[in-house]
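call fold target=Glutathione S-transferase
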Amino acid sequence: MLKILGKTSSINVRKVLWTCAELGLAYEQEDWGAGFRATDTPEFLALNPNAMVPVIVDGPTTLWESNTICRYLASKHGRSDLLPQEPAAHALVEQWMDWQAGELNNSWRYAFMALVRQSAQHTDAVAIAASIASWNRHMGILERQLQRTGMYVTGAQFTLADVVLGLSANRWNSTPMERPDYPAVAAYLERLAQRSGDGFARHCRNGVA
């Protein structure tokens, strides 16, 4: 059986859990990360030298990097609705997933650690303000994309891009800070909530940012 290593509160672990819900996959989960088993042990580092969650073990296959794991699972189980086979549509999904993992994640990191995690290492007011401004600017990019598509991130079809960006939009909406009124993002979150299945409720809008 598929094994997922990582604590449920991690947004990157929740990407994988939500993907499994979309695929209807059974799995075993082990809690690793802060507050649980340490990821800097030789046992875990043998699976992921970056000492980060999630990691999956799927028979002989061990993978880290959450977006890669999601793509692997969708491809393995033939879900071309979540990850299209046609090259241009496939690349568009990957483009938005890569943007989420790089550009968007880097914008919110300082503000989130300060305002939600209340980290003692993230107390610089200027850095917090700069991170909030950058986060809101990047979410403006998503707002304009959703205005263009009118439905999901890449168009009328729900894809893996919506798993990762749905989680990101929920985190932005849940963080106690000043934010612009982005009606397309708000409508998008409600659209995700109304889809069939419980992946969004269990792994995204579950009270955990």
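return ok
The radius of gyration is 17 Å. The mean pLDDT is 97.
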